[in-house]
Amino acid sequence: MSNTKTHRGSCICGHVQFEVDVDPTKATMCNCTLCLKLGARSINGKPAQLRVLSDETTHGRYGSDYAARYFCKSCGTYCYGKGDIPEIGGPFMSVNINTLDDFDANEATLMHWDGRHDNWQGGMKGSPWPVFREGESRTRIRATA
Fold first, then answer.
1. Sheet of strand 78-85, all strands in order from the earlier edge strand to the far edge
2. Contact 82/93 with Cβ under 8 angstroms?
3. All residues at 6 or more sequence positions from 66 whose CB lies less than 8 Å from its CB, including other chains
4. What are 119-125's contacts with CB under 8 Å, separation 24+?
5. 7: exposed, middle or buried (C-beta count within 10 Å: 0-12, 13-18, 19+)?
6. What is the mean pLDDT of the segment spanning 104-113?
7. Which segments of 6-145 does DSSP mark as H helices, in order?
């Protein structure tokens, strides 16, 4: 059964505002350096599911043409992302469920991606993928903007 409905979201200070049509109870986490440092729990969907209500030209943006993250320039909250990655189905949007105003992110069931090792073909699993593989350096790789 799907719990898809329209949710409102925002940053801490309220500068970034959006609506999104999702079921946030089925979220994902990734173990790549960027996602780990952001602490984001995400829900992905098609671009039409996300409606940015505030002026997107005033939001901060980092990433690449194939995957960008948007944040509030005032308070720094990472709110959502957009992109086009064929390995995960093409054009997408992603919302940090921690920014949904009407949802307790602790109620989400999390599935985990192994993005740190570009192991997208491994799919999602119910328990976290290891951040470090056996014999791998314990030094974290810095994300590039």
1. 60-63, 67-71, 78-85, 90-96, 42-45, 26-30, 109-113
2. yes
3. 83, 84, 85
4. 120/87, 120/88, 121/87, 124/28
5. buried
6. 89
7. 33-38
* Alpha helices (H) in the chain, listed in sequence order: 33-38
pLDDT, tens digit, 9 for 90 and up, residues 17-54: 999 999 988 898 888 888 888 888 999 999 999 999 99
Strand partners, 51: 19
Convert 37-59 to b/e letters by CB count within 10 Å (16 or more is b).
ebebbbbbbeeebbebebeeeeb
Question: Residue 139 has what pLDDT?
Answer: 63
**Domains in the chain, CATH or no CATH each:** 5-122 (2.170.150.70)
